[in-house]
Design goal:
TIM Barrel, 8 strands, about 325 residues, globular, 8-stranded mixed sheet
């Protein structure tokens, strides 16, 4: 029973299969592996707003709850006329879906390209990134999915699986173990919707997950622990980033108020110079002090009875007597 749970955990938590496809998957999913439902990365062409409209209808109306992502197909693409602004706005509408896949807080957009299309990539992806940023979608990670077969990034755990990568379950197992043990996050195995590739990958992965859960218990628990720790660090990093943005927003708002006050000096309001003095006084008298000094001050307040002892450890209790 425990082994069955471990195998299911391997299948759903330590790695995930993503199928790069259109809106319809023609290759059947193996019946023996129904417990792991694949996720889908919808393949779209540059500047094709009709495709994005179809994706929008699918993810908002037909299948609103399942996680998904986008993959831009740059293979054999020739730069032509296209409304990149309108396309970017449709892309933003798709990214706005609550089930869109994020990686470490970033919006992940894959792309497939050829080795000789550097110029085409820049001409398409750079304006897209700029437009999305202007619409508030930041950060956006653009990932060359095929490059992951040659160079693995342990920070995102993304692997591109193609039919030439392995020809047996043993070959897949060696590849799978090497990626699992070097990745800081659960693996994402991306594969194209090609005949036989989906079935082979599902079956090879089931065999590998079963072998790890039954024969490599120590390795299984170490990988599980690593992913939990990584998730904790990821959450802390995300909260730190949000805090920095919040502080920056408050600073910009304060600067805006100071500018408004300066502009209203002639109306007889509070003098701009006085506001600046108050701000500088607070900064020089408190903000520049070292953290240990501030905490020592809190302890002094507790000793002299101006602050409650419990408030040192819990922000939800009353601080001052």
């Amino acid at each position: 029973m425990q082994q069955a749970r471990d195998i299911k955990y391997m299948a759903s938590e330590m790695s995930q299969i993503w199928i790069i496809t259109g809106l319809a998957v023609t290759e059947p999913i193996p019946a023996a592996f129904k417990e792991e439902e694949p996720k889908f990365s919808y393949l779209i062409s540059p500047y094709d707003t009709i495709q994005l409209q179809s994706v929008l209808h699918h993810v908002f109306i037909e299948n609103p709850l399942k996680e998904f992502s986008l993959t831009i197909d740059l293979r054999n693409h020739t730069i032509g006329a296209g409304n990149d602004r309108e396309w970017a706005e449709y892309m933003a509408a798709v990214l706005n879906h609550p089930a869109y896949h994020r990686l470490n807080g970033e919006y992940l957009i894959n792309f497939i390209t050829e080795s000789n299309v550097t110029r085409e990539f820049s001409n398409i992806m750079d304006p897209l990134s700029t437009h999305l940023k202007s619409l508030g979608f930041e950060p956006v990670r653009l990932k060359d999915i095929e490059a992951t077969a040659r160079s693995f990034d342990e920070r995102d755990g993304i692997c591109f699986v193609n039919s030439s990568l392995f020809n047996s379950s043993e070959h897949f197992y060696d590849f799978y173990i090497s990626r699992l043990t070097s990745s800081e996050v659960p693996l994402s195995l991306f594969l194209l919707n090609e005949p036989g590739l989906i079935s082979n990958t599902f079956n090879f992965k089931l065999s590998a997950d079963t072998k790890i859960a039954r024969e490599e218990q120590s390795l299984f628990h170490l990988i599980k622990l690593l992913h939990k720790k990584s998730a904790t660090f990821e959450k802390a990093a995300l909260e730190q980033g949000l805090t920095k943005k919040d502080l920056q927003s408050k600073k910009e708002y304060l600067d805006f108020l100071l500018k408004k006050s300066r502009d209203m000096n002639d109306s007889g309001g509070f003098e701009f110079g006085d506001i600046v003095k108050i701000k500088k006084f607070y900064y020089l008298e408190y903000e520049v002090l070292p953290l240990w000094y501030k905490r020592f001050g809190h302890i002094i307040k507790v000793i002299i009875g101006r602050r409650t002892f419990k408030s040192l450890f819990n922000d939800n209790v009353r601080k001052y007597k």
